[in-house]
Amino acid sequence: MSSDQYRRKVQQHQKEIGKLQQEKAREAKKIADINRKIHSASQAVSRTTSQSTLSSKRREIDRQQNELARTEKKIADIEEKIAREHKKVSDAEKALAREEEREHRERERTRQRAARENDRRMADVTGQLASHDALHNQTQSVLQQLMLLPPRITVLFLASNPVNQQQLRLDEEVRSVTDTIRKSEHRDAVELTSCWAVRPGDVLQAINEHKPAIVHFSGHGTDQDHIVFQDDDGNAKLVTKDAIVQMMKACSDGIRLVFFNTCYSRDQAEAVVEHVEAAIGMNTSIGDDAAEVFASQFYSAIGFGLSLKNAFEQARALLMMEGIAEDDTPELFTSSGLDSDDIVIVRPPETGGGA
Predict the structure, then answer these.
(1) In sequence order, what DSSP letters do the residues of 208-257 get, joined into one string?
(2) pLDDT mean for each 10 residues of the chain (355 residues)
(3) Are residues 248 and 130 in the same domain?
(4) Among 124, 144, 164, where does a domain finish?
């Protein structure tokens, strides 16, 4: 029997003692009432001269004395029960103490076994660490060199230019973006992967395959919150904002920025930041020149390790410097609780010495 079971037995016997003591108190109260009745009848006997009253009171005294004897006998029985319950409490408490001591010894043995096992494992680990020292020394210099490199990211450029829509200069846009990335400080940290004539199914395939940090949509958009992809025949196929948001929700692992370089894409950008850190969209139509200039400078700044906010502002500034009056068209959105000034997608390597 466990210590908890013994403890419950102690509590049960103590509870039974409480009930018996209450019962004894009720019987003791009866004795007081009986004694009052006997005393009252005795007083009446001493005062009466009537033979009939005398006989009646004496019979009442006899009845009360008999009741008194029965009650006293009941109290004696209750006291015996209380004594037996106290004995049971004592026995249960002794058994509880023995069981607690036994459980304590068992816990101590278990603790000692665990300590010995831990010591054995630590000895094994120490031996393994010692055997790995040589390998560690060989790889340490390589790791230090890798730490000086910024993390490598992929920009997935998704282009759609349906044959039955006005043709856009998307090839010039991707060429300009590629050139500015190549000229950036951390050019080896940014890989641009482009997919052309994109159909809806191609987007999911490309994201799963390339696992990009940035997804860049380039092409047409409508003022009804659609992005224009292509069907199997190369014609326009409209995809709704809700579908785009659902796709980003399903594929958001690893994606930090979605760049909609398409007309009327503000609402899409605002919606997808529920699932990614940031998004850029256009609040109205945007011309080919503006789309190319804005995108090329944005990725150039990203490649120099600037924050998302700085890259966005530099790209807007270049539109103004080029005299392209569309600098208010792009809009930047961030997920709730994030500051675009704190978001750095290509983080520069840490520099500085250390012992």
Answers:
(1) HHH--SEEEEEE-B-TTSEEEEE-TTS-EEEEEHHHHHHHHHHH-TT--E
(2) 85 91 91 89 85 87 90 92 91 87 90 90 78 59 47 88 84 86 82 90 93 94 93 93 94 92 96 96 95 93 93 96 96 96 80 40
(3) no
(4) 144
Residue 130 burial (C-beta neighbours within 10 Å; 0-12, 13-18, 19+): exposed
Q: Which amino acid is at 320?
A: M
Place of tokens 């209450």: 22
Q: Which of 144, 161, 188 is the last residue of a domain?
A: 144
Same domain, 178 and 114: no
Is the domain of 179 the same as that of 288? Answer: yes
Domain span at 258: 153-342
- One-letter amino acid at 164 equals N
* 354 within a domain of the structure (yes/no): no
Token pair belonging to 22 = 């209450």
The SS3 assignment for 324 reads: coil
Do 312 and 223 lie in a common domain?
yes
**Partners of residue 194 on adjacent β-strands:** 157
Pairing label, strands 214-219, 226-230: unpaired
**214 bridge partner residues:** 155, 257
Tokens standing for 234? 């190369």
